[in-house]
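Input sequence (272 aa), recorded before submission:
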Amino acid sequence: AGVVVVPLSGMAVAAASLRWWTPAQSNFMRIDDGPIAYQYVSIDHISRYVIASAVAHEDDLLGLRKQAFHWGDFADRAAAVLSGERQQTYSTIPQQLAKNMFFTPDQSMLRKAVEVVPSVALRATMSDARIMELYLNYAQFGPDLYGVCAASWYYFDTPPSEMYPYHAMQLAGMLPNPEDVVRLPGGGVDTSPDAPYPSAAFHINGAANVDLPARFDAWGGWQNITASLGIEDSAADHADARPSADSCSTMPDSVRERLAVEDPGFVSAGGM
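Predicted structure, token format:
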């Protein structure tokens, strides 16, 4: 038992330290064969459309739930895994963040059980806004592509502070199948019926055209979603702080280098 307790207690401390500490990489990024495209961006410089879209798509009760997850949902997921049945409930944002930071993509029941410890620590020690800042910085948005800073520039040649609502909803639709997202030459996402990965295209199209517009309407507008997290300002309110190291106001070098190989004819409106 001691072999398990010590690592778990250390994991809880590490999770709690994320309230102040921003690691250079998540565990998912460390085990990625790479090279990866990534750059940190402060939540001050992330469009509120992006925040609202990610919450509505992945965990729309984040700002209304005091726990990291509902224990009944966790029990249902555990039963589904053990029985080999399809899961009817999904990981919350605190659970996804804990997985990205401390674990691997393995879907074993043991990992799901251990995941409880950092998930609870994250929920107990930090604000919803901080959870979303970390989540959007470490979430995967494509093969070897992490964080909303790299994703907004890679797909849309746009800083995350200036994302259009439709593009923000497309980014949220990438989250379930990030390894299968395909960028179009010149920019944009391949969501055509004959896309190389139709499952990813289905998720992105569904999120942007059906699911998220309906969820925003049910909330009485996307602004109510961000308000539920305690976020009532806008990225534009922080424009005076740009450019800065954490604003992602110019294309990251890792994205620039990747596009030079993948799309050599592409010229960024930002001066690439």
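Checked by second reader. The mean pLDDT is 88.
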